[in-house]
């Protein structure tokens, strides 16, 4: 409690020795205790507020993610079907059915050149069918769903620019650092711009990518705000 008195030993000293009676020091000590406890309470309140804000941001981002997925599916109904040639890759290595890692890496780099994030032009043979795909909004399994989402997302984009900046190799994965920007085809023409990196975890059994994890170097709420912000010149064009 904030109004806790001094320990029993101090109270005994107060009654048995009048020469040591110093009530001012006693109250001053209590005030320090009060201040400390009030400050700790405030810190807990701030932490609770931060957690609540983070949860709200996660909810908004997930809502926007699933909303864009549904919107892309709806748009695909009215979009003419395009014939997509899915290029395969040859199996190398020691003949045990495991794809050579260097071939998978070069295939991923080639997919970057085709902006597979927004075109869906991903080489399916480089990934396991039940590969896990994760990003700041959530995760799911299924290569076909990932390709469909990428293709549908591309239908919502007016123009885009994607570039692989750097590639790093590790024992169990490769990491591709990228830069991405696009103009959405919404009426207010919002512009998304971000940098980030993707982790490609390689299965030892197949040599294919079994986990595809995106990391965006942009706060979650900043991405959501970019979607809501009209591009420059939008209001001028609207008024002309």
From TrEMBL:
Q: Where is the composition biased (Low complexity)?
A: 1-14
Pfam assignment, any one: DUF2358
Q: Which residues cross the membrane?
A: none
Organism (species): Centaurea solstitialis
- PANTHER family of this UniProt entry? OS04G0578200 PROTEIN
Q: Which domain of life is it from?
A: Eukaryota
Q: What is this protein called?
A: Uncharacterized protein
Q: Where is this region: Disordered?
A: 1-23
């Amino acid at each position: 409690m904030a109004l806790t008195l001094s320990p029993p030993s101090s109270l005994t000293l107060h009654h048995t020795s009048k020469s040591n009676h110093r009530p001012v020091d006693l109250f001053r000590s209590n005030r320090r205790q009060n201040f400390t406890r009030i400050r700790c309470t405030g810190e807990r309140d701030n932490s609770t507020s931060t957690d609540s804000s983070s949860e709200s941001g996660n909810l908004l981002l997930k809502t926007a993610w699933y909303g864009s997925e549904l919107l892309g599916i709806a748009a695909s109904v009215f979009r003419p079907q395009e014939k997509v040639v899915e290029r395969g890759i040859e199996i190398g290595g020691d003949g045990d059915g495991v794809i050579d890692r260097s071939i998978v890496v070069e295939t991923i780099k080639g997919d970057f050149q085709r902006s597979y994030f927004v075109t869906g032009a991903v080489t399916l043979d480089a990934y396991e069918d039940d590969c896990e795909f994760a990003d700041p909004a959530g995760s799911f399994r299924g290569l076909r769903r990932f390709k469909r989402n990428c293709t549908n997302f591309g239908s919502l984009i007016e123009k885009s620019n994607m570039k692989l900046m750097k590639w790093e190799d590790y024992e169990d994965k490769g990491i591709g650092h990228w830069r991405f920007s696009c103009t959405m085809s919404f009426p207010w023409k919002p512009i998304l711009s971000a940098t980030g990196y993707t982790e490609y975890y390689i299965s030892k059994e197949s040599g294919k990518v079994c986990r595809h994890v995106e990391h965006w170097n942009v706060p979650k709420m900043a991405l959501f705000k970019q979607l809501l912000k009209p591009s420059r010149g939008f209001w001028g064009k609207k008024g002309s």
